[in-house]
Amino acid sequence: MRRWHLYVCDDGPHSAQIAQTYSEFKALNTDIAQYLGVLVHQDDKAFPQLQVADLMAHLAREVYEKWLDNPGVVDLSRLEHSVHRIDARTEEVMKSVLADGRRRLWRGS
Questions:
Q1: Quick one: pLDDT at residue 83?
Q2: How many CA atoms lie within 13 A of 83 on its CB side?
Q3: Separation CA 41–CA 43 (nearest Å)
Q4: What range defines the domain where residue 89 resides?
Q5: For 28-73, what is each residue's pLDDT tens digit?
Q6: Higher pLDDT, 89 or 55
Q7: Is 37 left (phi over 0), alpha (psi -120 to 50) or beta?
Q8: Helices and strands in the chain: count of H runs, count of E runs
Q9: Does some domain include residue 12?
Q10: Contact 41/6 with Cβ under 8 angstroms?
Q11: Are residues 68 and 30 in the same domain?
Q12: DSSP secondary structure string, 22-49?
């Protein structure tokens, strides 16, 4: 069974640029492109999930920028009852995640 994902982005002023970047990414990564699925744009007023995603992206960026200034020392206490976890993904970690995902795809699990 083929599995793919649907990515939903806010329908805003950067929609065309985001769509172009996504298409270019798929073209450059042909080995995984078939699993990536489609990108659609929706109005965040009609899809509150997009508002939550924007909020989380803003929060993650804020935390990551602080982490860049002082790795390992970021105070998340104000988030302890509302956010489970925020990770900073280094190049090493992302390569490991991709390698693990490829191994699972090859095994068919």
A1: 77
A2: 17
A3: 7
A4: 60-109
A5: 988 888 888 889 999 989 988 888 888 888 888 888 888 778 876 7
A6: 55
A7: left
A8: 4, 2
A9: yes
A10: no
A11: no
A12: HHHHHHH-HHHHHHH-EEEEE-TTT-HH
Q: Tell me, yes or no, whether 64 and 109 share the same domain.
A: yes
Residues 37 and 72 both lie in one domain: no
Residues 107 and 65 in one domain: yes
What dihedral angle (degrees, nearest 10) is formed by the CA atoms of 97, 32, 54, 94? 20
Q: Which of 23, 47, 49, 50 is nearest to 36 (CA)?
A: 23
Give the position of tokens 């073209």: 27
Does residue 48 lie in a domain region? no
d(CA 40, CA 72): 36
Q: Hey, what are 107's tokens?
A: 């095994």
Q: Return the ∠ at Cα 105 (arms to 3 and 99), rounded to 5°.
A: 125
The count of structural domains within the chain is 2
Amino acid code (one letter) for 92: E
Do 59 and 83 contact (CB within 8 A), yes or no? yes
In a domain, 55, yes or no: no
